[in-house]
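Thread amino acids onto this structure.
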């Protein structure tokens, strides 16, 4: 593994760890996502610090170059993350659909209640007006 690749792995690992720790401190990332990214940074760090381990894995998987193995590992981890995020997005879309239906039903029910209350108020006003008119029409006894 070339010195440049090792340095790039170390820089990527340190930057990833720093970035995720900053986001954790600001509470902008969920803990399970933070664990994934910390593990990702740790894998990059291990591959950068211990090239012997990377060479050993390259031999186990019978690959021609440690760089190919590193790219394969990174691509695999990122595809797994995209797949996980896709599942979460689908679940959230389903929840949004259900919530929008509930909001529509509640809004419709509130409109019905408002209309019924208006009708009751109008009927009460009409009765009070009839009562007042009928009292005014009766002759006064003095």
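Threaded sequence (142 positions):
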């Amino acid at each position: 593994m070339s010195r440049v690749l090792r340095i790039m792995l170390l820089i990527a690992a340190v930057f990833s760890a720093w970035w995720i720790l900053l986001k954790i401190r600001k509470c902008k990332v969920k803990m399970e996502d933070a664990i994934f990214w910390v593990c990702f940074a740790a894998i990059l760090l291990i591959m950068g610090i211990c090239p012997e381990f990377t060479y050993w894995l390259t031999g186990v998987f019978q690959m021609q170059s440690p760089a190919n193995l590193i790219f394969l590992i990174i691509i695999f981890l990122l595809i797994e993350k995209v797949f996980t995020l896709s599942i979460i997005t689908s679940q959230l879309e389903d929840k949004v659909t259900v919530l929008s239906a509930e909001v529509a039903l509640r809004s419709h029910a509130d409109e019905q209640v408002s209309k019924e209350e208006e009708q009751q108020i109008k009927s009460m006003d009409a009765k009070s007006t009839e009562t007042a008119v009928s009292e005014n029409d009766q002759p006064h006894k003095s």
